Amino acid sequence: MHNNKNTNLGFNLVEVLVVSLIIAGSFIALAGSQLNNIRSTQNAFYQSQAGAISYGLLEKIRMNRGVIASYLTDSSSYTCPTSPPDPFCYVSTVVSEQCSAAELAASEIYVSICGISNSGLISEGVQQVLPNGALDVQCVASDGTYGTDCSENHVVITVRWNDQALLKSSASASRSLELFGAL
């Protein structure tokens, strides 16, 4: 005679809880990975914007190299005015007829830092597209130091911004891109 016990072939509560914890941990790890991907994508966007603005400004400086000193900028002391410089020399048809080279340089610095949206023309500056965006233009001397000596016809354009992901984990959350150019 066999003793037939009624055995339950289902799951008990402890097994269900363990499996639930494993699944929850996997979802948390997946969410963290996704968050890191989003932060990396955002930083890549900021780097591409900084590069586009600095390369664009370098090309404008090369075209207007006779007034290099007019482009020298320390944006920590630059406050975007509520309206563009007068005369505003950003539209190419106006430049040759009404603006001096120095006025053109002032307008191009304004657009690179502050951006502009008028007359159907839209251009974003570092203060619009980068968190706490800043832009500096300095000359590079023969000894490699930065400053206002432009006799070597070399400039460095530095774009800085805050990395929002690093702000939460570090006191130093600043990123920068430096572009060196020979004129």
From TrEMBL:
<keyword id="KW-1133">Transmembrane helix</keyword>
<keyword id="KW-0812">Transmembrane</keyword>
<feature type="domain" description="Type IV pilin Tt1218-like">
    <location>
        <begin position="34"/>
        <end position="106"/>
    </location>
</feature>
<protein>
    <recommendedName>
        <fullName>Type IV pilin Tt1218-like domain-containing protein</fullName>
    </recommendedName>
</protein>
<dbReference type="Pfam" id="PF22150">
    <property type="entry name" value="Tt1218-like"/>
</dbReference>
<keyword id="KW-0472">Membrane</keyword>
<feature type="transmembrane region" description="Helical">
    <location>
        <begin position="12"/>
        <end position="32"/>
    </location>
</feature>
<dbReference type="InterPro" id="IPR013362">
    <property type="entry name" value="Pilus_4_PilV"/>
</dbReference>
<dbReference type="InterPro" id="IPR054402">
    <property type="entry name" value="Tt1218-like_dom"/>
</dbReference>
